[in-house]
Amino acid sequence: MSFIRAAASSSRAIRSQIGASARRRYATAADPSKPSNLPLYLGGAGLVGLAAYVYINFSAKAATSKAQQKSPLDPQNFVEFKLKHVEPYNHNTAKYVFELPDGHASLLPIASCVVVKSAEDSPHPLNDEKGKPIIRPYTPISPPEQEGELNFLIKHYDNGRMSKYIYELKPGEKLAIKGPIMKIPYKINEHDQVGMIAGGTGITPMYQILEYALKDPSNKTKFTLIFANISERDILLREEFDALKKAHPDTFNVIYTLDQPGSNWKGYKGYVNREMIKQNIAPATLGDKVKVFVCGPPGQVSALAGKKDGMKQGTLSGILKDLGYTEDQVFKF
To answer: What chemistry does it catalyse, as a reaction equation (predicted)?
Structure first.
């Protein structure tokens, strides 16, 4: 199965506007389910304002060939979208395809996510112990210009209340989605080298950036992705990353590492460590020419770069700090 879509035709004007677990189980362990708190995901008004600004600026200028003037998504309000169909991916993950009205594209800026909750008329609304809606962030894997669909790759965790809720959705049922929520404005060629370190489903923001940047013919940035998983069958989007590596050998490399490799596995083994990073990620001495993105379970992020502080980055620590990287060089999704 391949999720890669041929890039839709878009102008350079659009690109210039957009261009802008414990340590031993951290690689892939699921974060225990907790009651949702919307401010935890949206942060203060500044973040919402940034999301709204990018949304309006992007949507106003990214008209498609069908004269689409804005995204069907709303950064200020939840909008309900029907589940079109589900495509099983592996033993615990599936691709969920939601229908966008009138064949419109999402026009999501890079890099951004959305937040989701149960629909208002859901027969089984997903609420916390206080009766408040549980809200969770997800990063779509469909490109911004893909028409008529918004796609998510979601792993089903037995103790993940939202993933279980989505897993039980039937085609035709709805999910309330709000966004985009801007994470970090990605600009083509802003850095010479970009290192990416991901674990499990933390791969989706990395895929979003790579899919966008590598299809841009002007891209000169060299990307290196270190992707940690439990076993070989848990590697999400492997076919897509291998295809990107083959198509862009000079600007993209992917390294897989497994906690529980099979006897025939020839790649890295174990958790992402100091030597693995030194061997594959551009050094901190490159200054502002290098950026390192980190996304994965909280334990992994903490071991590599220190804990996040809600929606704030938090103090840089861990392996990347020990290797000399600065807070300006590291971004935690």
So the answer is: 2 Fe(III)-[cytochrome b5] + NADH = 2 Fe(II)-[cytochrome b5] + NAD(+) + H(+)
